[in-house]
Amino acid sequence: MTPRQMILQFLLKNWKGILIVLLSLVVMGKMRYDYKQMQAAYEASEQSLQAQLVGLQEIHKKQMSDMEDSLQVYKDTLDQVERDYQESQEELLEVIENRREEYGRQFSQDQVERDYQESQEELLEVIENRREEYGRQFSQDPEELVETIMLMYGFDYVP
At what angle do helices 3-13 and 15-103 cross, to 10 degrees? Predict the structure, then answer.
């Protein structure tokens, strides 16, 4: 019997086992290929998520900066309103004194207090209306608030 015949006889006798071994090797090779493909897809997904996270962090920083700027503008406006209120109170006292001198008579203390109280209530109402308006603008349309402040006080807003 020649070696070729022996090999042929062995293959015919054990063909099922040999086929199982070959198919097992093919399945194992396919599994390794699929695993490498899944690993590459996972790494690409991870890099994409990291890039998105960095982008979101930048957006958050910009929004926080814009919010701080808007808050500073709001505080400055509120300070200006309070200064205007103090100035108007002083002007009111001057007007009362001028009236006394102009008419050449003394107003009664009650009249002065009533006039002062009425004008103070009017000023408080104006201040409250401005606060509400500025608060609304700050929360709904900060750009409109910036425009209002720029027109009112004549300076430029630099973001």
Answer: 60
